[in-house]
Amino acid sequence: MKRTAYFLLLILLCTACKSHQNLINDNEHLVYIPCATMVSSAYVTRALGVGSSSNIQNAKDKAAIAARRELASTMQTNVQRVINTYVETYEEDASSRFASITQEVAHITTNQMLVASTIVCEKITQTLDKKTKNIQYNAYVVVEVDNKDLLGNLHKQLEQTIVQDQQLHINLESFQTIFYDEMKKIAQ
Q1: Which of 102, 29, 38, 42 is nearest to 70 (CA)?
Q2: Strand ranges of the sheet holding 135-146, from the earlier edge strand across to the other edge
Q3: pLDDT band at 168 (very low <50, low <70, confident <90, very high)
């Protein structure tokens, strides 16, 4: 008898703890978002996109487009932060020229990398609209870019720019160090 009562009490406590994990207050509940645990790090940049449609392929396409749009924005922001940090180490008279050239290079590189981005997580859910009885598909997609590849493409583009513009000097090792330092800050 005591054993059964203890077991029932244990189940009741576990159930109560589980329900409180999702309850923030009387009106708010935490929502589970598939693929949301896959976040950026110093070595990869990731973005989550969500799409809904009555057609499963359209939902997936919408989610992938949204994820790549977010990835492009994140990459541009990250690379801009690296460029700004590197420009601070550059000579003052050449820094504005360097900044404008590297911004153009960053834009080209971002576009190239988006084409090479890969889908690393894809989850589909479906819901039934109670009024219309139609099925609605919700797609969750995470795309990623390897920061090593991003840095490699930036180096390649910058080296081509240096060859064309003899007055522009870039210490690529220093640029790489700043790149990874900034990526680590973002990942924290």
Answers
A1: 38
A2: 44-53, 135-146, 118-128
A3: low
Alpha-carbon span 187 to 44, nearest angstrom? 9
Helix axes 92-116, 56-87, angle to 10 degrees: 160
| Residue with the two structure tokens 């110093």 | 42
Question: CA-to-CA distance for 61 and 125, rounded, in angstroms?
Answer: 14
Q: What angle do CA 110, 120, 64 make, to 5 degrees?
A: 60
Question: Which pTM value belongs to this model?
Answer: 0.72
**What span, in angstroms and rounded, lies between the C-alpha atoms of 75 and 12?**
47
Q: Give the pLDDT mean for 89-104.
A: 68
What HEC string does 112-140 produce?
HHHHHCEEEEEEEEEEECCCCCCEEEEEE
Using CB atoms within 10 Å of the CB of residue 1, give its burial: 0 to 12 exposed, 13 to 18 middle, 19+ buried. exposed
